[in-house]
Recover the amino acids of this structure.
């Protein structure tokens, strides 16, 4: 059953953004409270809305999920999340553009989409159950941040 609201069984891929937010050499890692990626550690983010630039989407999604104000710096790669059901039909399809971002202001106040959040050194991601490729995205984002110092 197709549902535009939940983005299940889509007729096209959905575009999403995320943010590897750095504050004092630590990156914000969050754990999802519901599907997709329920229970996994990842970066805050979500869908791009019609008429919104990628940078505007990053700022809005981070604010909605964490109450933080951030400045997107540069793209840090891309990810494709495609999930199929038992019959092989595409249940979800997201193209995710992760950004390196700097923390500007605010303290973490999570919305209902997130279960927890931690400021971690990138090396501390080892051992966490994360979305695919998270450590590589964080490493690439750290490089983008370092290039702009």
């Amino acid at each position: 059953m197709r549902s535009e609201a939940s983005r299940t069984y889509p007729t096209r891929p959905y575009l999403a953004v995320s943010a590897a937010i750095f504050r004092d050499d630590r990156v914000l890692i969050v754990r999802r409270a519901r599907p997709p990626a329920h229970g996994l550690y990842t970066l805050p983010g979500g869908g791009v809305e019609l008429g919104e630039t990628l940078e505007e989407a990053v700022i809005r999604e981070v604010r909605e999920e964490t109450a933080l104000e951030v400045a997107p710096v540069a793209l840090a790669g891309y990810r494709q999340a495609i999930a199929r059901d038992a019959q092989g039909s595409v249940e979800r399809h997201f193209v995710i553009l992760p950004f390196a971002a700097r923390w500007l202001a605010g303290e973490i106040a999570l919305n209902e989409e997130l279960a927890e959040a931690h400021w971690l050194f990138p090396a501390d991601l080892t051992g966490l159950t994360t979305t695919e490729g998270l450590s590589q995205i964080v490493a690439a984002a750290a490089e983008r941040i370092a290039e702009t110092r």
User: Anything to note?
Assistant: The chain has a mean pLDDT of 94. The CA atoms of residues 16 and 96 lie 5 Å apart. The beta strands are 14-23, 26-32, 41-42, 45-47, 69-75, 79-84, 90-105, 114-120. The chain has two helices and eight strands.
